Amino acid sequence: MKNTHWLTSYDPTNEEFWEKTGKKIAWKTLTVTTVALTLSFATWFLYSVVVIKLPQIGFTFTDDQLFWMAAMPGLAGGILRIVNTFLIPIYGTRKIISVTTFLKIIPLVMLGFAVMDPTSSFGYFMFIGFLLGIGGGDFSSYMPSTSLFFPKKESGTALGIQAGVGNFGVSLVQLLSPIVMSVGIFSFLGGGEIVAETGKKIFLENIAFIYILPLFIVGIWAWFSLKSIPVKASFKEQLDIFNDKHTLYCTMTYIMTFGIFAGLSAAFPLLIKNLYVPLESDLDPLKFAFYGPLIGSATRIIFGKVADKTGGAILTHITGIALIILFLALIFGGYLTPTSKDQFNVFLVIILAIFFFTGIGNAATFKQYPVIFAESPRRAAGVIGWTAAIAAFGPFVFNVLISQSRSLSGDTRLFFWFLIVGCVMATAVNWYFYTRKGCERPS
To answer: In CATH, what number does 15-435 get?
Structure first.
């Protein structure tokens, strides 16, 4: 039987083709893959909620173990993104999106039953966390795929919408989880855990089980509706992106934008728990955690269109400067070493401002990369996948290095100095190669 999911010809740079045929295919693909990506981010960030709740229902994990658990999906996401970077030209959009959507059901089933069993070990939760990284890994298939379907003039808008709406999956987890935990939706499976301090019953397994049916439906939808663009290239051929120094420079700017967004999204609830809950015991980190990813996702959508008009480089530059200032404010304002609960409001405002600017930067970089690598759409797609892969280690880096910073110096300031150095380097590279007058590749 002939394989019909490969498009025989597709050229979004041809205006007539784009208006008559390409636009419809591209926006249909964007719709399906964006819904799927939202569920990917939701599964990837489940542990940002789980690690807060496990100690409350009787699991005796240390703070360091909880940070490592929160870090594991980030480690797996980064590793799996490296793999996903090279899959679209080999297997095509339809197969990759469908299969990865179905795969995410496996760790959700495992997690739902693990939280119901008080004998579940730290090692088992770490294994589940690694599998949840599938939800972070497939991003490096989604974004390169989308970049192939759209012309460069609309790539910033399309990628901004996909990444921005997809990132809402983080807020979805942190907003929806407290609600679904309060209802015995899946009580027929024997769930329900008692919170030791209050005696109240919660249903932590719900935050995993609730996504299983949507993933199954979206997987079927993707299988029967998506097409693939025949941009065939072997794994070896795709390695040519590493022959260009700009692959490294783009990786630096994307670590500064998405790496910080993803890392802070994963670590934000634990930061509140460790810094401010000791000063105000009734402070619930999950009441505030979802605001950051929500703001970052929204600005990513809005500024995708702005980047199409202004170019991405100047917005990335503004992002870098803003992040440096905000990190310095956290350190020198004493908000990482608080002595009063009254400091929390300013701490929250600064963190939300960081999310705001990472959203701008995320939109800007996705406009930049297709322009920087304009000579080859396939290489541009590969660079988008690769940079996203490395930046996906953000949740792992944040949680592990925050823990190490606390161990070495007693607080988290050392880690935030590390972030400042990284932002200075990335901003300087962006200015020299992409922003200043007469730069090598204006974007």
So the answer is: 1.20.1250.20
